[in-house]
Write a structure and sequence with these properties.
Layout (H helix, E strand, L loop, with lengths): L1 H10 L9 H56 L11 E8 L7 E9 L13 E10 L5 E12 L5 E5 L9 E2 L3 E3 L3 E3 L3 E3 L7 E3 L3 E3 L3 E2 L4 E3 L5 E2 L8 H14 L2 E2 L13 E7 L14 E8 L34 E7 L2 E7 L11 H4 L1 H8 L3 E3 L19 E3 L9 H4 L8 E2 L11 E4 L3 E7 L2 E6 L3 E9 L14 E6 L3 E3 L34 E15 L15 E16 L3 E4 L2 E10 L3 H4 L7 E13 L6 H6 L2
Parallel strand pairs: 5-8, 5-30, 6-9, 7-10, 8-11, 9-12, 10-13, 11-14, 15-23, 16-24, 23-25, 24-26, 25-27, 26-28, 27-29, 28-29, 29-30, 30-32
Antiparallel strand pairs: 1-2, 2-3, 3-4, 4-33, 16-17, 17-21, 17-22, 18-19, 18-20, 31-32
Length: 629
């Protein structure tokens, strides 16, 4: 019994509680809870630190960005000026209010090639503002802003003074249209009549105000009043001259005589199909040549510009001066080219009899359907054969740059000057004349022609590729004309219809006859942005005193694609009795000049933003940075 009881007793498991386990469990759970709480606390703290760091970064970046715009505003307000060379420090550790001690450093310098360090650049003037901001914890942000000065080529129409040379009000009337941006430093005077007296298709600004604004059509809102925009001056001309001098493209007329519109030197642009593709629009197919009058000129110094001149001494009918012209003659087609086979000057007078008999040969030449007039030195006056010189003047031999073999082989090869940097590496797109000059021809390339005095447009001046026929690129043709005084539309035997006396010599025969060889006549074409520090006008726009309106000379339209920038508008023509004497203007805007203006064309001085960029602050050194720009 005892043994069975022991057995039963031994078979039962003996379980006793371990002392301290409950306490251990509590401790473990407490540690876990504390760990979780601590982790949560650390996450909250990290989030707070991260948020504060992010806020500092944003604030420091904002301070740098604000520095860029404050610097640009100071430049536009003329409080600071971008230096021609080197770096201008605008701020040097300035503490910015309301930022808990953020300091800012701001610099500005020009960028681009050496010529762009002047007041004009090949594509305008560019500069760069750099602003560095740093807070007390060492958080740094560096931002840069590329800025550019607007070119005057952005304007379809710009005047400094809203009155004519005679101080009359310049009224915009009869549906006058500005196809691009327009500005005047004076008031805009809209004629008081049935609207629209003027049509403004783009942004219009003025430094004063607008008279009769309701009588105009404002496609992009009424004119805004802004601060005056200063016209360029002699210093801007000198910049263009210096750049042209580097290429050897500064020319001085050897003869200076006559009135201010008499040009004894002329530049003719020539586009040549070098690659044989049937088009003269290749990148290196633009050239020009220069003809100038001799000091002793038997045909008169007006020959270069095809002016109507006095008849030679001993002429039977000196009043019929055009019938003695060396610039005009009867043409025939020779080798596919219409050339003069007999000049009016060389058509003999009759030996006896009255006016009708003695002038019959010259009268027949004048009335010939194929009679045409040409500028002095034109090969078409010499049977289509290029002559390096004639009794009246000569073409200037090239002394700078080279030409490809195909051009060198031409009869005029030694007298063609390249418009391509490939053939003249120093050419930056500028030609300068120390004096007066006449212009004509077809331009392939990008060029600004500037002159110390007057520039006279003698005949059509067009681009090889007409404006608007392509999308705008940096290689497109574009022409800038920049005169230190006036730009004039010529009154010559090409642009102005001519007349002769009646068959009996007692009166004048009407209508006048047009002798221009241009297919565009009775108009003439101009593809250029034109700037004159004085006026843009017609040469001799007013008829001679006492001339009846029946004898007014209507020279047609100036069909211009480009813009006009001038101190004040000159006179294009005179209206009387329903007739016009002079030219009428028809101006379209070349929008490619907004993005790719003529080379080194003067700028307005107003800085605009091109782009914002960020700079890595690691190892940044301002002097090294701008040295690489």
């Amino acid at each position: 019994m005892r043994s069975r009881q022991r057995a039963r007793f031994a078979a039962r498991p003996l379980v006793r509680p371990r002392r301290g386990m409950a306490l251990l469990t509590v401790i473990v759970l407490g540690v876990v809870a504390m760990t979780i709480a601590l982790a949560s606390s650390m996450l909250v703290m990290a989030s707070t630190v991260s948020t504060k760091a992010s806020e500092r970064t944003v604030m420091v970046d904002d301070v740098a960005l604000t520095g860029l715009e404050e610097a640009r505003n100071r430049l536009n307000a003329r409080l600071d000026t971008v230096p021609a060379s080197g770096i201008l420090t605008l701020e040097n550790g300035a503490t910015i209010a309301g930022t808990h001690g953020v300091k800012r450093y701001t610099w500005v310098s020009r960028i681009g090639n050496s010529d762009s360090l002047s007041n004009a650049g090949e594509f305008g003037v560019q500069a760069e503002i750099v602003s560095r901001a740093v807070d007390k914890s060492g958080t740094v942000a560096i931002r840069r802003e590329v800025i550019y000065q607007e070119s005057f080529a952005k304007y379809a129409y710009f005047t400094d003074v809203g009155r004519t040379v005679s101080n009359g009000i310049l009224w915009f009337a009869n549906g006058w249209t500005a196809h691009g941006p327009m500005h005047s430093n004076d008031s805009l005077y809209i004629y008081d009549g049935a609207p629209p007296q003027a049509i403004f298709k783009d942004v219009v600004t003025t430094a004063k105000g607008v008279y009769n604004a309701n009588d105009a059509q404002w496609d992009k809102g009424r004119a805004k009043i802004i601060s005056p925009i200063a016209m360029p001056g002699t210093a801007d001309l000198n910049i263009v001259r210096d750049i042209a001098a580097n290429a050897g493209y500064v020319f001085t007329p050897s003869v200076v005589t006559g009135d201010s519109a008499l040009t004894t030197m002329r530049i003719e642009f020539v586009a040549i199909d070098i690659d044989g593709n049937g088009q003269a629009n290749g990148p290196d197919e633009g050239f020009f040549r220069i003809y100038q009058s001799r000091s002793t000129n038997p045909w008169g110094h007006g020959y270069t510009a095809a002016r109507t001149q006095a008849a030679p001494g001993g002429a039977y009918a000196p009043n019929d001066s055009v019938m003695y012209s060396p610039n005009c003659g009867v043409t025939n087609v020779v080798g596919g080219v219409n050339v003069v086979t007999q000049r009016f000057r060389h058509v003999p007078e009759g030996g006896s009899g009255g006016y009708s008999t003695r002038m019959s040969g010259k009268r027949s030449a004048f009335e010939s359907p194929s009679a045409r007039c040409f500028l002095g030195g034109d090969p078409r006056l010499n049977g289509g054969v290029f002559a390096a010189s004639d009794s009246a003047g000569n073409w200037l031999p090239r002394t700078s740059g080279t030409v490809p073999p195909a051009v060198a082989a031409r009869p005029d090869g030694a007298y063609l000057w390249p418009l391509s940097p490939r053939f003249n590496p120093a050419f930056r797109g500028t030609i300068f004349v120390e004096g007066r000059v006449g212009l004509s021809g077809v331009v392939r390339g990008r060029v600004t022609i500037a002159a110390r005095n007057n520039i006279v447009i003698l005949d059509d001046l067009t681009q090889a590729t007409a404006p608007g026929n392509t999308t705008c690129t940096a290689d497109d043709d574009i022409v800038g004309v920049f005169a230190g005084e006036h730009v004039l539309w010529a009154d010559n035997q090409i642009q102005s219809p001519q007349q002769r006396r009646t068959n009996d010599g007692t009166g004048w025969l009407l209508p006048r006859k047009d002798f221009s060889p241009s297919p565009a006549r009775p108009d003439f074409q101009l593809h250029a942005v034109v700037m004159a520090l004085r006026t843009i006008a017609s040469e001799r726009p007013n008829p001679p005193g006492g001339l009846g309106t029946d004898y007014y000379v209507d020279r047609g339209f100036v069909r211009q694609v480009g813009g006009r920038i001038m101190q004040r508008a000159g006179t294009g023509g005179t209206i009387g009795g329903g007739r016009i004497h002079g030219f009428t203007s028809d101006i379209s805007f070349n929008r490619c000049s907004l993005s790719f203006p003529p080379p080194y064309f003067p700028t307005t001085g107003h800085w605009r933003v091109s782009q914002y960029l960020e700079i890595d602050p690691r190892g940044f050194d301002v002097n090294e940075w701008f040295a690489r720009r």
